[in-house]
Specification:
The protein has 163 residues and is α+β, with helices and mostly antiparallel strands. The chain has 3 helices and 8 strands; from the N terminus they run H-E-H-E-E-E-E-E-E-E-H. An 8-stranded antiparallel sheet has the order 1-2-3-4-8-7-6-5.
Length: 163
């Protein structure tokens, strides 16, 4: 009986130690628009009508994020200083469609995936003049007719007015 109790206690302690060893710190830090501007030299434009706007920063990657709701849909936008076009979205789907697009004067790419009845749209664009890479993603049950580039353009236009 004593050995069983000791074995159980050892298992409980070992499980706790293993869980602590496997825990990974969250690299995202809650931020403000001002924190982001100071950290990466750029900021997000908030589209007119956006609600529940929240900012985060991943200092180790020099990556900023803004989450917001617009017309009942949730969005995630990211900015990262970069001299080249790169997917900074953090989304890893099997993209069914990819089409080139233009956001303001910048070349971009729109991707769409479907998973478990939900559609995921992603817009990527690069401002070569400013050296900034952008991404904007949204998901929903039915995105037929949805134009993510319109929201991306609003984010960029509003950011340009702030600068």
């Amino acid at each position: 009986m004593k050995r069983t109790i000791i074995a159980l206690l050892c298992a409980v302690v070992a499980t706790g130690l293993l869980a602590s060893a496997l825990a990974v710190a969250n690299p995202w830090v809650e931020s403000t628009s001002g924190d982001i501007a100071e950290a990466i030299g750029a900021t997000f434009g908030v589209p007119e009508g956006a609600e529940d706007v929240a900012y985060s920063l991943m200092p180790s990657e020099n990556l900023a994020e803004m989450r917001f709701t617009l017309d009942g849909m949730e969005y995630t936008a990211r900015i990262k200083p970069s001299e080249e076009f790169d997917d900074i979205s953090g989304l890893y789907y099997e993209w069914k469609n990819e089409e080139p697009c233009v956001i303001a004067f910048m070349q971009g790419l729109v991707k769409r995936a479907t998973e478990e009845g939900e559609t995921i749209d992603l817009c990527l664009w690069h401002d070569a003049v400013m050296g900034l890479m952008y991404s904007l993603s949204a998901s929903g049950k039915d995105l037929d007719g949805f134009d993510i580039t319109a929201v991306a353009g609003a984010i960029y236009a509003q950011a340009s007015e702030v600068s």
